[in-house]
Amino acid sequence: MIADPDRAAVSWQKAEAHLGEAIAQDVDTSPMAVIHSSYYAMFHAARAVLFEATGSAAKRHDAVIQTIRSPGADPRR
Questions:
Q1: % helix, strand, coil for the chain, step of 5
Q2: Which of 14, 38, 53, 62 minimizes the number of CB atoms within 10 Å of its CB?
């Protein structure tokens, strides 16, 4: 499989943006906002890893999770 560094970089930028939002939130006053932003940071970071490793990554959250859990699974699901 051929890596897709351009798409990996875009996903990584999204991950960094969501992480920045999570860090900027006050966990005591907005815990759900912190969780939401942290989850999306993790999701986009996982997609970046898949783009770099395989050249593709699923759009659906459950498919990204399954691909990370099961190396060799089809990331285009």
A1: 70, 0, 30
A2: 62
Cβ neighbour number for residue 2 with a 10 Å cutoff? 7
Provide the residue type at 67 as one letter: T
- Cα–Cα distance measured from residue 37 to residue 44, given in angstroms and rounded to the nearest whole number: 11
Cα separation, 24 vs 6, whole angstroms = 27
Confidence band (pLDDT; 50, 70, 90) for 1? confident
CA distance 46 to 58: 10
From the CB of residue 26, how many other CB atoms can be counted at a distance below 10 Å?
9
Residue corresponding to tokens 């089809």: 74
E strands in 1-77: none
pLDDT at 8 over 60: yes
